[in-house]
């Protein structure tokens, strides 16, 4: 690629934005031109994201969306929901490509969005223009897209754990999901429920069966399966800074065997460079993928004598800030520009 892609970030002070900056600066085909924010305006990036120290010349600028369009051909929106949607009309008018990391354009039914996000969508007419950016599912559509709705962290890990069975229409209509997550998923702003002293030695459930990512999971798996799938989702607050470990349980037809499942998963993920398929011999761990764009997937199967079905448990682990946010956003950018899918984001995580 002769010319580098001029990209900008709107909402540059959050944790996902810090990962975007870190990854984009190492990307061989990218020129990061502007980092916009309404917070910390005028400050050097390293004063807020201290991992950069004094090594970068970027400062946070309060730049209107139309002005961003003069400096960039692609803009990453790393903003809270509704805020992100308020900027997209001007970015669309400016003619730039958009990768939105908020939840504003993921859910196709605006009424469901309004219900779970407890607000009114500020720009519902644009929802239909966004492609859901899960590369393992929508790679072809992403390559042709101008606007990407980057998936949420929980929906990414959940979908990837059971997607091969959904595509084969082997999933039952009900999937039960429990997902411990790290505190960085709650964002930069401290809250009572994410305060370090009450979280570091604690484990608790929150938003059981009402989390805003639940309908996104249902939509993704229902579309993949071409039939309705219901999700019962219980997220858990874990004493980690980053990482998600999804445990998804479903009933399968008693005729399905371990060999069948293994073949289905191997076939489905054979061209997915960031999926580490473990099968049923070992199980995912957060420490294995922390700081990387990789996802680990494993499973277990047992015969339920009482119900006559087979109980299937799928486990997946991702870094919520990388594969669950910024790394996946860059993976989508690579596909949009016909670059190698792993370009700039193929580093291993840190161990331990």
Short description:
The chain is an alpha/beta fold. The protein folds into 2 domains: 5-129, 3-Layer(aba) Sandwich (Rossmann fold); 154-320, Dihydrodipicolinate Reductase, domain 2 (2-Layer Sandwich).
Describe the protein's architecture and organization.
- With 352 residues, the chain is an alpha/beta fold.
- It has 2 domains: 125 residues, Rossmann fold, CATH 3.40.50; 167 residues, Dihydrodipicolinate Reductase, domain 2.
- Helices cover 32% and strands 22% of the residues.
- Strand 12 and strand 13 form a beta hairpin.
- The chain is globular and about 65 Å long.
- It starts with a strand and ends in a 16-residue tail after the last helix.
Write the layout of secondary structure elements.
Layout: E1 5-10, H1 15-26, E2 30-36, H2 45-48, H3 65-71, E3 74-77, H4 83-94, E4 97-100, H5 110-117, E5 131-132, H6 135-144, E6 147-149, H7 153-167, E7 174-181, H8 196-199, E8 204-205, H9 214-225, E9 230-237, E10 244-252, H10 258-268, E11 275-279, H11 286-289, E12 295-303, E13 310-318, H12 322-336
Parallel strand pairs: 1-2, 1-3, 3-4, 4-6, 5-6, 7-9, 11-12
Antiparallel strand pairs: 7-10, 8-9, 10-13, 12-13
């Amino acid at each position: 690629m002769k010319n580098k892609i001029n990209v900008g970030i709107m909402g540059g002070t959050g944790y996902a934005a810090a990962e975007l900056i870190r990854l984009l600066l190492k990307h061989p085909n990218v020129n990061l031109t502007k980092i916009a924010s309404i917070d910390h305006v005028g400050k050097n990036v390293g004063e807020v994201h201290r991992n950069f120290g004094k090594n970068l010349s970027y400062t946070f600028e309060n730049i209107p969306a139309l002005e961003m369009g003069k400096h960039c051909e692609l803009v990453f929106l790393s903003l809270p929901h509704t805020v992100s949607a308020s900027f997209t009309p001007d970015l669309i008018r400016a003619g730039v490509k958009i990768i939105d990391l908020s939840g504003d354009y993921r859910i196709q039914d605006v009424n469901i969005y309004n219900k779970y996000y407890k607000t009114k969508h500020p720009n519902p007419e644009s929802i239909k223009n966004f492609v859901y950016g899960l590369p393992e599912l929508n790679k072809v559509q992403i390559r042709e897209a101008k606007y990407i709705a980057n998936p949420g962290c929980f929906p990414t890990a959940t979908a990837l754990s059971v997607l091969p069975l959904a595509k084969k229409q082997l999933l039952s209509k009900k999937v039960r999901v429990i997902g411990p997550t790290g505190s960085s998923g709650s964002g930069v702003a401290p809250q009572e429920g994410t305060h370090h002293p009450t979280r570091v030695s604690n484990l608790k459930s929150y938003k059981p069966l009402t989390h805003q990512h639940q309908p996104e999971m249902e939509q993704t798996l229902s579309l993949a399966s071409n039939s309705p799938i219901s999700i019962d989702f219980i997220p858990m607050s874990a004493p980690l800074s980053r990482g998600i470990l999804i445990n998804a349980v479903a009933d399968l037809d008693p005729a399905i065997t371990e060999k069948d499942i293994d073949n289905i998963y191997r076939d489905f993920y054979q061209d997915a460079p960031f999926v580490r398929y473990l099968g049923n011999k070992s199980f995912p761990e957060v420490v294995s993928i922390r700081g990387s764009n990789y996802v680990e997937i494993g499973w277990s199967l047992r015969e339920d004598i009482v119900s006559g079905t087979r109980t299937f448990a799928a486990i997946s682990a991702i870094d919520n800030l990388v594969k669950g946010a910024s790394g996946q956003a860059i993976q989508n950018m690579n596909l949009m520009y016909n670059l190698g899918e792993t370009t700039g984001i193929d580093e291993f995580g840190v161990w331990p």
